[in-house]
Every structure is written in C-alpha cells, then in structure tokens.
Design goal:
The complex is a heterodimer of chains A (about 80) and B (about 150).
Chain A lengths: L1 E5 L2 H6 L2 E4 L5 E2 H11 L1 H8 L4 E4 L2 E3 L4 E2 L4 E5 L6
Parallel strand pairs in A: 1-7
Antiparallel strand pairs in A: 1-2, 3-6, 4-5, 4-7
Helix pairs in contact in A: 2-3
Chain B lengths: L1 E4 L5 H8 L8 E8 L8 E8 L1 H18 L2 E9 L1 E4 L3 E9 L2 H17 L3 E7 L2 E5 L3 H8 L3
Parallel strand pairs in B: 1-4
Antiparallel strand pairs in B: 2-6, 3-5, 3-7, 4-6, 7-8
Classes of the chains: A alpha+beta (about 80), B alpha+beta (about 150).
C-alpha cells in the first residue's frame, strides 16, 4: 500500500489522503498518470500547475521510484504564508 | 527554533522568551505579520495548509542559509496553520546578532522566504467565497533582492 497525500487546492479535490495498493515497484509519474486516468478533475487541476512531488518527505523528481509502504506528497506551487 | 502550530501567536510573549537568552547579542530584530483585511474581497480569515515534515525541513534550510549569510546568534520562527482570523498574527520571526544590520537583514530575508517559497498553501476565506491565493508580485520582488 502506498499513501498519497494532497495539499492546498489539490486537497479540496482529492481529500487529504488516498491509499493505493501496488503489486510492483513503480514511479511517482506512473502513479500520477494512473490517478489522472481515474479522476478527470485531478487531471485537469495538475495540468494547470507546476506540481512537485516528495517521496517519504523528500522532494524529488517525478521519475523517483516508489515501493510498497512509501508515502507520496503531491505539492501544488507554494504560496507562502 | 521553528514552530508550526494552530495556536494563537502572542508576539509580546514570544519576544520576551526570545530575549531571555541574549548571549553576546547586541541586536534583536523581530517581525510580526498579521492577516490583512482585504476590503474588496471582504476577507474574514486565512486558511493555511502545510505538509508538516516537508514544511519544517524546507524552513530549516532557509534558516541555515540565513545563518550562513549573517553571523546570527539565534533565530526563531513561529507560523500559524489552519484558520487565522483577520487582524490576528500569522507569523513571528526573531533574529539576534552582535550587530543590528545582521539581525535586521536576516529577519527580512526569512520573512521574504516565508512569504514566497515556504511550503504553505493559503486560502482566503471571505463573505464572497473562498479562494486559494499566490504571492503578490511585490512579494517576489522582495524575495529577489536576496539573489
């Protein structure tokens, strides 16, 4: 199981967290493509923003590997406080 | 020290605590940011979202950069998360150094960072609706002074 966390405007669309089961190692990009295939609103939202990703709280590239038990954060552009 | 919490900010109490451990400091700079009343939008509050571990570590990196750029003795950042009403403090930054220029500039630098590049997401809650907002052009201009 991989837990995916959404923040800011994306949390309004997706909720804070979703759990996705996985059978083989994949990448953040592939997981996002899968989510986009399931949710048109999410696909539309992230196509309009420069989203960053973190795996286990470390910001990294979209082609970062993801394995069972990992946590992914989907980070819209930061707006500052 | 970095504190990200939903609790109300009491700038006077935070400043008093900060001032207890002066060490060799000859200067203390503090800044308190309040939630502005945006008249046209009839804003009642801000909602601040954050990714706890990521936001904490990214702000820590900014503090380290400030410590590399200026000879600081102490820093303290307190930032509200969740709903913050208009007029309430949303951020408190304190820096201490042997001389005033370092304390002033580091405090300014950290506030500019918090206003633009810190991993927060900010929604204006108003009578006419809610809206996720981005930094103003002036905020980016302020930040770019340090590049």
């Amino acid at each position: 199981m991989v837990r995916i966390f959404f923040y800011g405007p994306l949390a309004d669309i997706m909720g804070r967290e979703r759990a996705v089961s996985m059978s083989a190692e994949t990448t953040v990009r592939q997981m996002m493509e899968s989510l986009c295939g399931e949710d048109a609103e999410f696909k539309a939202a992230i196509s309009l923003m420069r989203v960053q990703f973190a795996v286990n709280d470390v910001i990294g590239p979209a082609d970062a590997p993801v394995k069972d038990g990992d946590e992914i954060a989907v980070l819209p552009p930061f707006s500052g406080g | 020290m970095i504190i990200l919490a939903p609790d109300p900010i009491n700038p006077a109490a935070l400043a008093a605590e900060f001032n207890k451990s002066l060490g060799d400091a000859g200067a203390i700079a503090t800044f308190t940011g309040l939630v502005r009343r945006e008249g046209e939008k009839q804003v009642e509050a801000l909602f601040i979202d954050h990714a706890p571990a990521i936001t904490q570590s990214e702000i820590s990196r900014a503090v380290s950069e400030a410590q590399n750029r200026w000879p600081l003795i102490r820093t303290k950042i307190v930032h509200r998360i969740g709903r913050v009403a208009v007029g309430d403090p949303v951020a408190f930054v304190a820096t201490s150094a042997m001389h005033r220029r370092a304390a002033f500039e580091a405090c300014d630098f950290l506030m500019d960072y918090l206003k633009t590049d810190a991993p927060f997401w900010k929604k204006q809650i108003g009578r006419t609706g809610d809206e996720w907002i981005e930094p103003r052009a002036a905020d980016y201009t302020d930040r770019d002074r340090w590049r």
